[in-house]
Amino acid sequence: MFLTLPSHEHRLSFYLLVTFFKKILLKDEIEGRVSSPSVATSGIGHPLAMLEGKTGLYFSLLDTTIDILKKRAQQLIKNINESRQKDHALMTNFRDSLKIKISDLTEKLEERMFQIYDHHNKIIQEKLQEFTKKMAKISDLEPELKQVCQTMETVYKDLCLQPEAVPAEEQSHKDSEC
């Protein structure tokens, strides 16, 4: 159990109750209901008995009021503690439901991520297949390209070696190019 202090309004209620009893006591003194010590010792005896009766009644009322205030304070503390326990239970339930919702959302997000990964994998696979086909085609064309280059080289050399009826300057220029 939590031990808590009463709230401001409960302290105010207690203060008002104490003030009320002080006013009653002051009123009794002003009206002469509670005898002064001089009246009590005047020798009559009756005012002393009246004083004792009023004092006993006052303390009896005060004891009763204090007991009532204690019970009320205990009840207020009990109510506050019960309210706090309810709040704690509510927060626990809220936390649990929040965990469940977050778990559900996380699962949905994970599923969506895997769907996106799968889609991207398909696109990547298609592009890799295209790339592989093009690389195979390049590999197939490479020997042909080498053959064409060799043929061109041979033709060029043959052209450079054939004598033409060209002036000597042009011939020397052609020879330097080869």
From TrEMBL:
One GO biological-process annotation of the entry reads:
synaptonemal complex assembly
Superkingdom of origin organism: Eukaryota
This protein's GO CC annotations: central element
The identity of this protein, by name, is Synaptonemal complex central element protein 2
Taxonomic source organism? Oryctolagus cuniculus
